[in-house]
Amino acid sequence: MGLNRHMIREEAFQVLFALQSDPEADIQTIYEAIPHHDEKQIPTYLLTLVNGVRDHQEQLDEQINKLLANGWTIRRLAKADLVILRLALFEIQYVENVPTVVAINEALELTKTFSSDKSRKFINGALGKFEEQVNLEK
Predict the structure, then answer these.
(1) N or C terminus: which one in the chain shows less Cβ crowding within 10 Å?
(2) From CA 3, how far away is CA 92, in angstroms rounded?
(3) Among the CATH numbers 1.10.940.10, 2.40.10.10, 1.10.3720.10, 3.40.30.10, which is that of 5-137?
(4) Taking the model in full, what pTM does it have?
(5) Gap between the Cα atoms of 110 and 120, Å rounded
(6) Domain ranges of the chain
(7) pLDDT tens digits for 62-115?
């Protein structure tokens, strides 16, 4: 059975979190270590998310910094929250067939699984702020 996009996002989170924890880690080993990754071939969407976040990480981090309250920096964020924000912002900006509301909702689902209720509220607020900024620019 193939993976749905929610499952792929969970796997992307796990890969990116592992790389955040150990940037020198072998990515192929990380892909193979994902518990429910039972496919012979890595799903295209998983590669899109992981490679996209990695390729745009500097820009995504700049955007995240702008969303933080005064006195806060990316370094103060929990690693899980940072990875979730990067994934959501990447999907919002670079994946055409994912509506903003879906990317935000999926980020909140990831937060339920991999972070805390307090973080879910923070991520919802940060992504809502980003969405408002994008709408103002249109």
Answers:
(1) C
(2) 21
(3) 1.10.940.10
(4) 0.92
(5) 9
(6) 5-137
(7) 999 999 988 888 999 999 999 999 999 999 999 999 999 999 999 999 999 999
